Amino acid sequence: MVKSANTAYAARVPLHQVHIQDEFWSYYINLVRDVVVPYQWDALNDRVNSAEPSGAVRNFKIAAGLEQGDFYGMVFQDSDIAKWLEAVAYLLESKPDPALEDIADGLIDIIAMAQQEDGYLNTYFTIKEPGQRWTNLAECHELYCAGHMIEAGVAYYRATGKRKLLDVVSRFADHIDSVFGTDPGKLAGYDGHQEIELALIKLYQATGNERYLRLGRYFVDQRGQKPSFYAIQLEERGGKTHWPGNVALDLEYSQSHVPVREQDKAIGHAVRLLYMLTGMADVAAETGDDSLFAACRRLWDNIVTRQMYITGGVGSMPQGEAFSFDYDLPNDTVYAETCASIGLIFFAQRMLRISPEAPFADVMERALYNTVVGGMSRDGKHFFYVNPLEVDPKACGGANRKYDHIKPVRQEWFGCACCPPNVARLLASLGEYIYTVHEGTLYTHLYIGGEAQLEVGGGKVKLKQASNYPWDGKIRLEVEPDGAAGSFALALRIPGWCKRASLKLNGSAYPLNDQTVVNGYVRIEREWAAGDVVELDLEMPVQRIYSHPLVRANAGKVALQRGPLVYCLEEADNGANLHEIVLPREAELTAVREEQLLGGVVTVRSEAEKLREEDWTNGLYSPEAVPGTKPHPVKFIPYYAWANRGEGEMTVWVRER
């Protein structure tokens, strides 16, 4: 629990202090640097002819007076620019790149020119509805776009030391503070799409200006107060809405139905909820607010024990991109937006920074290795917005409209392009998620190879991590403290999926028991010396995973997991009609390393069975059963890697005999 302001909140680990050198993750980080960010820059400038236009850069040029024209795109189009800039900032913080920095500086110059005299910055309202600022908070994403630009400004300042964008977003935040609040003459409102809350805490941490902390807390506290601010604004607009349907009156959709401290069930738009919870955790940590942290815990528990997919996907309903009800986790109509899993990772990281408990890191790892990395193709130019667990391409885009949102292959871009730059900024900042230092203990949350320079115990420590994770569970850490940091605790996570683990310290066995393993982390507290080596061995067998009996979609079915990776069957390996495959419970499951497949993966092979549908001669329905099964060898691949070999069927959950 948070006990008092700032006493238990682990600080952010700067990216320049963490150098990732990892067989699995270096590929994706280099892909972001070399392919994804340049490709997205072209897309934002409308230079990818085969992709949907963006208009995002041109909107800023028009708002800055550099070009003539009309606003193009969604009301939140500015956020794509901000997230791209944030990803660039993280890349620059990790490794200098003068050419990329010059491009970013040029874009920042345009953004600064687009800012209005009073600090306001939003191209939609500047170009298209200049007299309607702050009149439709429920729908129009002004504070959402502001939050993303603030995050970009903070990240760019940390990376380069340049204040131009930081000064722009500080002026914008000052303007927002002059508009919102409970004082007479101010708007007692809050954003329709949460984001500003967590961004303001970042701005406070970067500048030390408590005005931004107070404003962030205001937005958290004000949400859900009665009477409904959205309803008041709707009446003031004479019932005019920006989107089909009346979002302003659907308060559960934006988690505005009750104050946040009274909420105990994940409901409404999934990304909004996870961004809100991230901001709530930040405010709770910075202010020592126990009641706010308790609400975070309640909602965390509801999400991960009743409303989360095995892949770390969240938000099962396409209607409203939303949570539905407990245990409603359909596989074929699922939404599970990539951005929602990214939001879940943000939330998990904040909870870890407050209270280092392995279940938070377990969920962070699950979402990262499955849904998030699966949201982007291996070429870095195609993306999933929706992440299904079962796909039949014949159903996608056909007469059955309930599958319209499901895509059997990744797309190049989206009219609503929130997911691609979100993936880029998360992977570019991955170094922030591996370690935290919390009250004199250095925690290792993720097993990602590389070298980190961290401050603990009053001095600096170099930590070298090496592994072949996630393909095997052998992890080696070499500790090199300076003189002042010799005495501290090193804590290593024992993942929830691991049933047997062993540890050696300088070649000698180290006990794993109730005294040494606390909250899922094995703690080694000692006087460290240069060259000390810790070797953790996590057994990584293939596991059969079953879901709660109330998850209707998975009744009688099994899924496979090995380490942090969830597996799936794909038509490319197993033929069509995957629903006919039956995996006997006693069938042996064999892990096989395939270096030439999908960049090198471990697959899982087994001898399964398949219904003999060719022997069915009884029409559409019959009192006679299908005449048995036939042997059918199967190969499972990691879920993140599906849809990289063309269009075909896929399923995570398989019938079990």
UniProtKB/TrEMBL annotation:
GO biological process: carbohydrate metabolic process
Claim: Hydrolase is one of the keywords in the record: yes
Record flagged with keyword Hydrolase: yes
Signal sequence, renumbered to the chain: none
Domain Non-reducing end beta-L-arabinofuranosidase-like GH127 middle: 441-540
Key words of the record: Hydrolase
Gene3D superfamilies: 1.50.10.10
Residue stretches making up the Non-reducing end beta-L-arabinofuranosidase-like GH127 C-terminal domain: 542-655
PANTHER family, A to Z: DUF1680 DOMAIN PROTEIN (AFU_ORTHOLOGUE AFUA_1G08910)
Cited InterPro entries: 6-hairpin_glycosidase_sf (IPR008928), 6hp_glycosidase-like_sf (IPR012341), Beta-AFase-like (IPR049174), Beta-AFase-like_GH127_C (IPR049049), Beta-AFase-like_GH127_cat (IPR012878), Beta-AFase-like_GH127_middle (IPR049046)
Residues covered by the Non-reducing end beta-L-arabinofuranosidase-like GH127 catalytic domain: 17-432
Descriptive protein name: Glycoside hydrolase family 127 protein
GO terms for MF: hydrolase activity
Organism: Paenibacillus faecis
UniProt-listed Pfam families: Beta-AFase-like_GH127_cat (PF07944), Glyco_hydro127C (PF20737), Glyco_hydro127M (PF20736)
